[in-house]
Amino acid sequence: MAGPWGNNGNNGDDGGSGGGPRNPWGNPPGGPSGGGRRGASSLEELFKKGTGGGFRGGIPKRPGGRSWWPLVAIGFIVLWVLLTSIHRVSPQERGVVTLLGSYSRTLQPGLHFSLPTPLEQVTKLDVEEIRTIDIPEGESEKLILTGDQNIVDLAYSVRWNIKAPELFLFQIADPEETIKEVAEAAMRAAVANFTLDDTIGSERSEIEQTVERNMQQLLDGYGAGVVIRGIAIKKADPPAAVNDAFKEVSAAQQTAQTYLNEARAYAQQLTAQAQGESAAFDKVYEEYRLAPRVTRQRMYYETMERVLSKVDKTIVEPRGVTPYLALPEIKKRAQQPPITTVEGQ
Amino acid sequence: MGRIMQNPVALGIIVIALLFTLLNTLIIVPETRQGVVVRFGEPVRIINRYQTDVPFGKTGAGLLWKIPFIEQVVWIDKRIRDVEMEQQQVLSTDQLRLQVDAFARFRITDPLRMYIAAGSEERVSDELRPILGSALRNELGKRPFAALLSPERGQVMDNIQAGLNRVARQYGAEIVDVRIKRADLPDGTPLDSAYQRMRTARDQEARTIRAQGAKQAQIIRAEADASAARTYAESFGKDADFYDFYRAMKSYETTFQGGGPDDPQSSFVLSPDNEYLRQFRGN
């Protein structure tokens, strides 16, 4: 029986004395004592035998003498057909099939078959993924004129995904660039209808919705096959050049609030004080009304007692005497009260 | 024949030549393209021409054929393409400048005309670009500055589109849409003066807010003063004489309060005639 490598017969036991052509590296029958030349010549012989045995061409023949080429080619083709005609479409994907360039059908998620590649081609697109376009890219300023001719620095992002894969593929030359430009145009148009204060403040969501609506309308007009999921204004600030002036306004608001707070605190304090004092007076007055004379005298003496008990007192008999008021002396004593007290004792 | 079949080289050449001819005969037309078949430089027919409202799959795309080597296909984009314009400076009727950036979207609807008039889609773009610019300048230049900000409100864009469409049709193209992407004040003086205006407006606002705050604060204080005065008057008015006495006592106590090492002591020089010393005198 002919083996695939064309060696006729005698396959099997190699483990013998090592003399046969099965073992090219083995010593020739002459034994290990043989020289280099003899080894070389036996190798030549071996090659001659090998060539004679059917070592012609790169790929040997299969049994029956026919070439292996057709089998290999068929194998390739089968593999090719299998690889290019079975398609697994993931849940988030859709597959657009074109038959010789012409749109044929859109594959839903699952396992699908198509004609092999040169005939039918499948382009898979992710329709669930929400894509985001940031405008402007990076940290640069994007200045837009507002309706009251002011300038606002705006940064926003557009979220979109593919709605109709076949439209997305065939309708517009550069869908992403188109979406970006449409977003810019819609945003500019929307902001031009609002004042700066509205843009910065309360009307942001209104602007977002307007832009989203207009973009969708425009893109549907192009037949772009995309859905705008949302516009998010990330930044709506006055431009950096005038930012200080805007901060000044909020600082002024704080200042004004401070004024008000201070005034209110003063008012509270004053009112409370007035109420307290008048209440105290009312109480005393009630008592006083019951016994005016006694109360009056009591209050007088008590007050004098409190006042005079803590101060230096000098009683001068003025009649006929010109009192010398030692005011500097008093001052001195006032400056050094402890010493004076000691001396006085 | 038999000899040829046995000569592998000759066989190979024949197979390759046949394949080449076949490939040159068949045209695979994708959905995104239309083509003009040209025979010796002369256009003979149009393949997969754009038609409105024909769904994909029903168009002329697919496998077509032509006469090999004699006919060539000139491919033309069937999709919507854009004309990106360089910034244009527009002067409004009130002599204010605006830097305008616009785009137009077009589609080749007449490939044959386009092939004859322009040759390629890029040429169409190039031809439309300056026209878009001048149409924009002309149309916007008829309006005051404030109207430029929101040109969508008026007929402006429609007029521009119509004007541009007239030219585009000569190139076998159709304008799908014209939009203003940006409308900015030019750098330099116009932008700086706008900034200056914004700054002064904010400054005015800040001052107003502060002044309003101060005003409110003053009113609050005055009201408090008035209310305190009213409270005092209501209470003390019951007996003016006693109030005089009562308040005087309070006042003495506060004024002559001495004591404490830091506080210089008041010194009193009393005359024996003093009311306080009436009993002290013993009479």
Can you describe what's shown?
The complex is a heterodimer of chains A (345) and B (283). Chain A has 345 residues and is α+β, with helices and mostly antiparallel strands. Helix content of chain A is 48%, strand content 19%. Chain A has helices at 36-52, 69-85, 165-170, 175-191, 196-200, 204-222, 243-290, 292-309, 327-335, 337-344; strands spanning 86-89, 93-99, 102-107, 110-113, 120-126, 131-135, 143-145, 151-162, 226-237, 312-315. In chain A, strands 6, 7, 8 and 9 form a four-stranded antiparallel sheet that branches. A three-stranded antiparallel sheet of chain A has the order 3-2-5, with no helix packed on it. The model of chain A is unreliable at 1-24, 26-40, 50-55 and 337-345 (pLDDT under 50). Chain B has nine helices and ten strands. In chain B, the strands form three sheets. In chain B, strands 6, 7, 8 and 9 form a four-stranded antiparallel sheet that branches. A three-stranded antiparallel sheet of chain B has the order 3-2-5, with helices on one face. Chain B has a two-stranded antiparallel ribbon with strand order 1-4. In chain B, helix 4 (121-140) packs antiparallel against helix 6 (156-170). Chain B has helices at 2-6, 8-25, 111-117, 121-140, 145-149, 156-170, 189-236, 240-255, 278-281, and strands at 26-29, 33-39, 42-47, 62-65, 71-77, 81-84, 88-91, 97-108, 173-184, 267-270. Helix content of chain B is 49%, strand content 23%. The chains are: A alpha+beta (345), B alpha+beta (283).
